[in-house]
Each structure stands twice: as structure tokens, then as C-alpha cells.
């Protein structure tokens, strides 16, 4: 039987070597890499960015968007409550701020309010949205990889 360079004395195709190959990404290991990356992105997004923003930035976002119907209505209900409520308001505000065209066209968001938002908060919103999109793309890729490639 054939042996791969760098592996133990297990013959090719045996169960022990198959596990080693999976770990290094030869057979099915890409799924493990995608799972690890997606969880890292989700943890960074949820713990570091969203919780930090819920504690430090939620009040400033509520003050900036007082005239905005979308953000102010949710902020009145959940903005002063629990961390989960503030995270919900932040996710709604992030979607509204990063993709504002439809909200401005409807009259739900004023362009002058977007100008008042500090750039540091806007950058954190972009990072949180980007990491969330990347992590869910990796999870979707993992599901496709597991379903069709195996």
C-alpha cells in the first residue's frame, strides 16, 4: 500500500490516516477551516463589536437619529433596556445607516442625520456588518461544501 510523505505508517485509505488528511485540508478539511473562521468572525462581531457598541454607542445613536422614524421608534422601545434590546436597535441602525437609499426615499431617514453620526461609530458599524456577512457566507459555503462536494 502507498504511504504519504509526512504521515505515520498507516496505509493510505485507513481510518487513522484519513483523519490526518482531513485535518490538513486534503480531504474534507476545508470544512473545518470554514467552521473555525465563521465562528471567529461571529464571536468577534457579537462579542467585541456589538456588545461594545451596545454599551458605549447606543445612547449616541439614539441622540443622533431623533427624527428618523425607523431608528427612533425602535430606540424608544428597546434602547434603554437590556443589552439584547440595545443590540437589536444597533443592528437595525446599522442596516439603515449602511444602506440608506430606500429609507431616505421613503422619508424615514434624514440625510442631515447621517452627517451627524460620528465616523468612529460608522466604521464600527461597517466592520460589524462586514464580519457578519463574511461569517454567514462561510457557513453557507460550509453547508454547500458538505452537501454537494462530499
Task: Write down the overall geometry.
Answer: elongated
> Strand content of the residues, in percent?
under 5%
**Secondary-structure element series:** HHHHHHHH
Q: Compute the separation of the termini in Å.
A: 24 Å
Q: Estimate the helix proportion, in percent.
A: over 70%
| Domains (count) | 1
Spans where pLDDT lies below 50 across 5 or more residues: 10-27
Describe the biggest sheet?
none
What is the radius of gyration computed over CA atoms, rounded to a whole number of angstroms?
22 Å
Q: How many extended strands? A: 0
- Write down the overall mean pLDDT: 75
Question: Could you say which structural class the secondary elements and strand pairing correspond to?
Answer: mainly alpha
Task: Please tally the helical runs, counting DSSP H or I stretches of 4 or more residues.
Answer: 8
Written overview of the protein:
By secondary structure, the protein is mostly helical. The protein has helices at residues 15-23, 29-56, 58-64, 69-78, 83-98, 101-106, 111-116, 119-149. Helix 2 crosses helix 5, helix 2 runs antiparallel to helix 8 (119-149) and helix 4 runs antiparallel to helix 5 (83-98).
Briefly say what this structure is.
With 150 residues, this protein is an all-alpha fold. It has helices spanning 15-23, 29-56, 58-64, 69-78, 83-98, 101-106, 111-116, 119-149. The two termini are 24 Å apart.
Amino acid at each position: 500500500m502507498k504511504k504519504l510523505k509526512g504521515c505515520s505508517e498507516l496505509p493510505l485509505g485507513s481510518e487513522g490516516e484519513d483523519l490526518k488528511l482531513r485535518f490538513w485540508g486534503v480531504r474534507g478539511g476545508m470544512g473545518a477551516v470554514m467552521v473555525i473562521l465563521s465562528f471567529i468572525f461571529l464571536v468577534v462581531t457579537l462579542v467585541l463589536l456589538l456588545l461594545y457598541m451596545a454599551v458605549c454607542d447606543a445612547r449616541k445613536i439614539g441622540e443622533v437619529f431623533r427624527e428618523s422614524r425607523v431608528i427612533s421608534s425602535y430606540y424608544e422601545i428597546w434602547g434603554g433596556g437590556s443589552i439584547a434590546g440595545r443590540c437589536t436597535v444597533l443592528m437595525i441602525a446599522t442596516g439603515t445607516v449602511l444602506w440608506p437609499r430606500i429609507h431616505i426615499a421613503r422619508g424615514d431617514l434624514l440625510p442631515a442625520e447621517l452627517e451627524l453620526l460620528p465616523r468612529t461609530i460608522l466604521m464600527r458599524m461597517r466592520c460589524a456588518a462586514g464580519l457578519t456577512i463574511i461569517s454567514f457566507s462561510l457557513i453557507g459555503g460550509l453547508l454547500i461544501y458538505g452537501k454537494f462536494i462530499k
